Each structure stands twice: as C-alpha cells, then as structure tokens.
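Quick one: structure for this chain?
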Amino acid sequence: MSHPEDGPRHVAIVMDGNGRWASKRFLPRLAGHKQGVDTLKRIVRACAQRRIAMLTVFAFSSENWSRPEEEVSGLMDLLAGALAREVSQLKQDGVRLRFVGDRSGLSERVQAGLSRAELDTEGNSLLTLNVCFNYGGRWEIAQAAAQLAADGEPITETTLSRAMALGAVPDPDLLIRTGGEFRLSNFLLWQSAYTELYFSPAFWPDFDEQALDKAIAEYRARERRFGKTSAQVTQPSVFPV
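Got it. Here's what it folds into:
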C-alpha cells in the first residue's frame, strides 16, 4: 500500500489556465501556451529532483479540436517546435517521453515527431513523462473495450486495465489541476478511482516549484484508505516485516 508520507511516485497534472493567463495580460492565447511549455520544463526538472518517478500531463484533449482554428494550429506548431528543441535535453537529463492519445487525427509531421522523441528517449529511467495529446478518458476506455472485443477476450476490470493506452503505467497517486477549476475534464477517468485530487487556483504558467511542493505537502497529510477503514490503515501489521 502507498504511504502518503513517502510522497507521490506518480503525479498527474491538468495544465489549465494558459489562455486565461494570456488574456489577463492582453496577449494572444497562444502566448499563454508558449509560457505553459516553459512551466512544464521547470516542473519536469522539479519532479525529477523530488524523486517522482512518473509525471503524466494533459496537453491536448480530444475536445480541444473545437477551439478556434488559429489556436489549434498554433498548438500543433508549438508541439512540433518543442519536440525539435527539447528532446535532446530531455534525453540528456534522463527523461523518457511517452505520448498517449489518438494519433490518427494528427499530421504526419507531428506523428513522426512523437515517434522519434519516444525512440530517442526510450532508454532513460530517471523520470517517465507521459504526455496525453489528443487524449480523452472516455476514448481510452472505449478503445480498450473495442480491442478486447476484437480479440475475443472477456471484458473485466483486469483485462480493461491491461488494454488501456496507459495499461503499463501505475495509477497516479496525486492528480493536480491548475486554473481554479474543480473537475477532471475527461482526464484519466479509469486510473483516478483512488487518486488524491488537488486543485490549485494558479494558472498553469504561474505554477512553480513552491506550488508543486504545496500540493505534495497536502498529499502527504492525507490518509489513503483504498476502501478500508481508517483503523485498518493505521493499525500496525501483525506480520513481521
């Protein structure tokens, strides 16, 4: 069982508030997304320094295609540019990149960039960074069920968990959402059944190491029961260690 006082091993983040951050400064929304990329770079380093083994971030949801065309196009260019600039540094820093989501709607250039980044960093083990791009929790569950049905396998909690796009990834211990909103917005619906949720009022571009530490401190102060009673969780084990 996970003990919160040990700190989270897997942190998930809904990086929300980029557009509102830009609007408050009378800047185009894309300026907020660019600033958000810089924040992600800082938080990746901070997670590695805090011995967090895995970070999963919500970069682009399957619902985001309905945003203005200029913003969507700018986000795609931003992703392609970030891949070109940052992958070599991530590789040097020991970060493994994985992209999770439906790639069929992405351009060949973007798809090739994702695959190349995964290949270039697959040997790294300091921190795994899962970037959920063109992703939705309902999509992930539906594609897992469809795959099991196509393979003639029974659909159970165990088989569904294995068939998920994030099937090889342990469930997040802590899920942080920035931007002052209090919802999951179709992110990690299956995996977050017993995840500790933390909501920050800060817009993502303003989220820093101090804000991360505050979220981790609150996580450590909580009691994770996984369906058990408080007494069951806190009583000492009767078995020798």
